[in-house]
Amino acid sequence: MNYCQLKEFVYSAPFDVMTEVYKNDDVVLSIYRPTKLSKRFKNYDVNKNFQIYMQEGSNKPFRPNHLRMFIDLKLRVMEHPELKELLLVSFDKIFYGSDPCNAIAMIRDQNFTLCLNSIEITSKLAQLFLLEQNEGFGRYSKYNPPSLYLQGWIRTFLNETTSIDVLLKGLTNNNTPKVKYTKMDDRKQVDYNNHKEPLWYLKS
Fold first, then answer.
1. pLDDT per position as a tens digit, 124-159
2. Total domains present in the chain
3. Which residues constitute the domain of residue 139?
4. Residue 39 pLDDT
5. Torsion over CA of 69, 46, 28 and 117, rounded to 10 degrees?
6. Alpha carbon of residue 131 to chain centroid
7. Euclidean distance between CA atoms 6 and 1, whole angstroms
8. Which residues does residue 27 pair with via DSSP β-bridges, in sequence order?
9. 19, 71, 73, 139 - which has most CB atoms within 10 Å?
10. What is the DSSP code string of the chain?
């Protein structure tokens, strides 16, 4: 599914039921749309809010967080630095709305041994996180689209040679990614450019 198809699928799913989105080998990604939100999420729209779940084999489903995706991607580029640009292009395509299965075609058959899940699961998880950030985020975002916060960090983890410890510290401290990774995609920035070249942030 591309971004628009995923959005339609998620928001046509029934409330209070676990709905499978994607399965790869023994890993399942699902979404859950609760009708009742906790006080922590009182500012969220119940019609737009959804929760992402992952189940590995027969283990209990859990809610994966963004760190899982960032660590997975960093491990891949640490193992295969020569694939950095292919990884960046692939996940940029997902950000711009492509079906993850098509976006990762150039890297699907690469032999990654340092990773948390298959590249198919990581790419689908990224797409779900991007949708969640755009549609279900209940607070003001400094970015337009709001998912640019995540995409800026995806680019950071794949491109920066800084240690993973430093990158994770910046992320968990709620720092924003460097402007160089977001400015031409951000409609709130004067540098926004709808006709930019691929991997434009590597040239700035």
1. 999 999 999 999 776 778 999 999 999 999 999 999
2. 1
3. 3-202
4. 77
5. 0
6. 8
7. 6
8. 24, 56
9. 73
10. --HHHHHHHHHHSPTTSEEEEEEETTEEEEEE--SS--GGGTTS-TTT--EEEEEETTSPPB---HHHHHHHHHHHHHH-GGGHHHHHHHHHHHHTT--HHHHTTTTTTS---S-SS-HHHHHHHHHHHHHIIIII--S--SSSSTTHHHHHHHHHHHH--S-HHHHHHHHHTTPPPPGGGTTTT-TTSTT--TTPPTTGGG--
Tokens 């295969």, residue located? 80
Q: Which two tokens stand for residue 11?
A: 């928001």
Residues 17-70 have pLDDT tens digits of 999 999 998 999 999 999 988 877 777 788 899 999 999 999 999 999 999 999
Prior bond of 145 cis (ω within 30°): yes
Model confidence over 171-204: pLDDT tens digits?
999 999 999 999 999 999 999 999 999 999 999 7
Tokens of 70: 């960032």
